[in-house]
């Protein structure tokens, strides 16, 4: 890991300014950033510490929707009573991911921006278009039993590792951001992008754009929802395949359904 | 014109560089066997501290060097290039090339073992450009240099303030109820700060990438991975390590339960297991043994002591 500096701020606007520098990146829980800095995949000189920004609250609003600050930890979100009652798929997905220690550190905003776990992406000696655009994709003919079935391109077939994002996609969540040019809202379905010709671009975020909070709307299907995850180990492993399913039932009749898939596509994949 | 680094002027002979926080030559003379090896092979030892640089030769008193600043910068640059933090040992060959470099533990015997093992692994896994004679030199002088580290590893830093060029700073960490002033770089993890700066080696470095749980500590009462926590970011937090659980000679109930249930074999993962288990019970989400297994999945035990670990947690919960 190369030396770098840590910049701190209590102001969202200031954080966005600091984060707009080409040589900086945001750090919150740090579970991804510190790891990827150490193995040399991330090489930004300056970390903008956003952990003291006022984005760590959860609000259950009158319309039944949930507003989750970007700095709310995975543990806090998963174990929130309202999440268990109204959005069980979200609780189950988060608790299916990582380990308790990591969930205590990792944040909602950071989870949205998890980096690829493709072994070739993490190995600096391997060709990887996501890490070094134009260098090639070693996974195409390599060890790829964990790679994407859906949404891949000849440039990249790495899967998106998050469980939480799969649930948020099924729940029609909306990501709110702040940048130098103002605030905007991005639907979960549009937040992550498929690799295409540019696997180095993973989300709709622009440089310096900061995730501020995520809105999970109240829907008729959210309360009857479930997350199923299949993996090599019984716990603490990334998905080989997973599904977030939410149903709006009228007796035994399905009025509406949401199905999102994880572990099988280059981004959280909306099936139904 | 500043003086050149003494490491350049010593070219032509092997040099062992010991980067330490603080060292004074009082009472440090080489032992007979190491002296003989140094003399026979013409190796020199350079001890680099924050405020001085010493050249140590067998049978002689240590000599304080005038060109300390350049030498210190040179040694730190080598350590930085090799991505190691202090205290550390670097062995340069006669061409000035670093053949072995590694940070050391606070515990002297562990440091020696690690250094020797590291040197042998390095030599075994790379194209051998050292003669057997040189290998013997490197290992012997490493041991010699490490013997000088006794009493150095636990001392606090020699000067305060921010050093922008190195991205380092003196921070205060609140660990087990005590405040520790330590110098850390921006990228120094809490794990390395605990082990290498403060000398609390109970917290173990396993994978150093968040996958094994051996480095688990409590930060403000919550279990986290110290290998993925930057030390400079937890200055306002309370850190609890395995050393902070017992009260005098009285073990924490979780430690006692691990002993009673024989919940370990080699013991390397045990501090992390115990800290994780303490965090687990504080969280209060584990109702059944299956819950315990799932919520302890962040801690890997290569020996496979899992059934006894679950039993220990069951026992501690009932205690």
Structure description:
The complex is a heterodimer of chains A (272) and B (319). Chain A is of the alpha+beta class and 272 residues long. Chain A has ten helices and twelve strands. Chain A has helices spanning 12-19, 33-38, 74-78, 81-86, 88-95, 100-105, 108-112, 119-122, 164-170, 188-191; strands at 5-8, 24-27, 46-49, 58-60, 66-69, 174-179, 182-187, 210-216, 225-230, 241-250, 253-262, 269-270. In chain A, the strands form three sheets. A five-stranded antiparallel sheet of chain A has the order 4-5-8-6-7. In chain A, a hairpin with a 5-residue loop joins β4 and β5 (66-69). In chain A, α5 packs antiparallel against α9. The model of chain A has no long low-confidence stretch (mean pLDDT 96). Chain B is an alpha+beta fold. Chain B has ten helices and eleven strands. Chain B has a six-stranded mixed sheet with strand order 4-3-2-1-5-6, sandwiched between helices. In chain B, α4 (108-125) runs antiparallel to α5 (132-147) and α7 (253-260) packs across α10. Chain B is elongated. Residues 27-31, 107-113 and 151-160 of chain B have low confidence and may be disordered. The chains are: A alpha+beta (272), B alpha+beta (319). Chain A binds chain B through residues 1-6, 27, 30-31, 34-35, 37-39, 47, 49, 51, 75, 79, 98-102, 104-105, 233-236, and chain B through 80, 83, 166-167, 185-187, 189, 208-210, 213, 216, 222-225, 227-230, 232-233, 276, 279-280, 283, 285, 293-299.
């Amino acid at each position: 890991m190369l030396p770098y500096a840590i910049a701190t701020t209590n102001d969202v606007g200031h954080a966005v300014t600091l984060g707009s520098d080409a040589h900086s990146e945001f750090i919150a829980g740090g579970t991804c950033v510190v790891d990827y800095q150490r193995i040399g995949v991330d090489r930004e000189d300056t970390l903008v510490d956003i952990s003291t920004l006022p984005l760590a609250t959860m609000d259950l609003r009158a319309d039944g929707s949930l507003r989750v600050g970007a700095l709310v930890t995975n543990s806090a979100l998963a174990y929130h009573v309202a999440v268990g009652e109204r959005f069980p798929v979200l609780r189950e997905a988060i608790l299916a991911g990582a380990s308790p220690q990591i969930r205590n550190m990792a944040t909602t905003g950071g989870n949205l921006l998890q980096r690829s776990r493709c072994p070739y992406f993490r190995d600096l000696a391997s060709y990887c278009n996501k890490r070094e655009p134009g260098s090639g994709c070693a996974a195409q003919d390599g060890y790829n039993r964990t790679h994407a079935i859906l949404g891949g391109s000849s440039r990249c077939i790495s899967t998106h590792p998050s469980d939480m994002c799969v649930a948020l996609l099924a729940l029609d969540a909306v990501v709110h951001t702040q940048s130098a040019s103002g605030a905007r809202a991005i639907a979960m379905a549009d937040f992550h992008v498929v690799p295409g010709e540019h696997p180095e671009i993973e989300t709709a975020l622009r440089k310096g754009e900061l995730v501020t909070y995520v809105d999970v709307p109240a829907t008729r299907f959210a309360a009857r929802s479930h997350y199923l995850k299949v993996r090599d180990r019984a716990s603490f492993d990334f998905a080989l395949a997973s599904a977030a399913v939410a149903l709006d039932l009228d007796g035994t009749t399905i009025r509406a359904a949401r199905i999102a898939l994880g572990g099988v596509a280059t981004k959280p994949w909306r099936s139904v | 014109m500043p003086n050149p680094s003494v490491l350049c002027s010593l070219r032509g002979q092997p040099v062992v560089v010991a980067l330490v926080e603080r060292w004074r030559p009082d009472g440090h003379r080489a032992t007979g066997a190491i002296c003989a090896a140094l003399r026979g092979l013409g190796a020199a030892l350079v001890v680099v501290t924050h405020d001085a640089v010493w050249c140590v030769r067998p049978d002689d008193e240590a000599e304080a060097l005038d060109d300390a600043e350049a030498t210190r910068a040179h040694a730190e640059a080598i350590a930085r290039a090799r991505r190691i933090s202090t205290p550390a040992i670097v062995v340069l060959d006669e061409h000035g090339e670093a053949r072995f470099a590694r940070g050391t533990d606070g515990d002297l015997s562990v440091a020696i073992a690690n250094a020797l093992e590291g040197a042998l692994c390095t030599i075994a896994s790379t194209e051998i450009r050292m003669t057997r004679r040189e290998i013997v030199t490197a290992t012997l002088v490493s041991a010699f240099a490490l013997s000088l580290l006794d009493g150095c590893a636990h001392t606090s830093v020699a000067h305060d303030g921010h050093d922008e060029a190195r991205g380092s700073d003196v921070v205060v960490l609140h660990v087990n109820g005590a405040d520790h002033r330590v110098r850390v770089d921006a990228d120094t993890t809490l794990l390395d700060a605990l082990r290498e700066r403060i000398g609390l080696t109970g917290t173990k470095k396993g994978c150093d990438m968040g996958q094994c749980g051996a480095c688990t500590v409590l930060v403000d009462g919550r279990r986290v991975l110290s290998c993925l926590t930057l030390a400079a970011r937890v200055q306002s937090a309370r850190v609890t390590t395995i050393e902070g659980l017992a009260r005098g000679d009285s073990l924490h109930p979780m430690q006692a339960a691990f002993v009673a249930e024989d919940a370990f074999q080699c013991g390397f993962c045990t501090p992390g297991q115990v800290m994780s288990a303490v965090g687990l019970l504080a969280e209060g989400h584990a109702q059944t043994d299956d819950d315990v297994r799932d919520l302890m999945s962040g801690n890997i035990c290569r020996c496979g002591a899992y059934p006894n670990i679950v039993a220990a947690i069951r026992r501690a919960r009932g205690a």
